[in-house]
Amino acid sequence: MLDFEVWSRRGSTPPGDIKLGEKSPSGVLPRRDGRYMNSDGRSICLYKLLPCLLMILLIAVPVRAQMPDTTGIYGERKDTLDASVFTARGNGNFLSKGKDIRTEVITAAGLCKMACCNLAESFENSASVTVGYSDAVTGARQIRLLGQSGIYVQMLDENRPVMRGLSAPWGLNYVPSQWLESIQVAKGVTSVINGVESMTGQINMEHRKPTDEIPLYVQASVMSDTKADLNVASSLQLDDMGKWSTVILAHGSGNFKPMDHNGDSFIDDPWGGMFAFSNRWLYYDPSGLQVRFGVRAIHDGKNGGQQMGGILPLWKADVYNNSLDGYVKVGVPLNEDNSRNMAVVADFNYVDLNSSFGSNPYIADQRSAFINLLYQDQHLESHHFTLGLSNTLDAYREKLTWSLKPLAKTNQLKGESLLNALGAFAEYTFHAEDKFSAIVSLRGDWYNGAGLHLSPRLTLKWAPVDQLVLRANGGRGLRYSTPLIDNIGVLSTTKALNGNLMDHPLEDAWTFGGNITWYLPFDKSQKTYLSLDYFGTRFMEQMVVDYTATDIYFYTLNSIQGGRSQTDNLQIDFGAEPFRGFTVTLTGRYTDARQPLVHQSSDVKPMTDRYKAVLNLQYATNLNKWIFDFTASLNGPCHVWDFMRDIDPAYKDGWTKPYPLLFAQVTKRFKGFDIYVGGENLTNFTQPNPIIGADKPFDMGFDASCIWGPLMGARVYAGVRMTIWKTEKI
Question: Is residue 369 included in any domain, yes or no?
Answer without folding.
Answer: yes
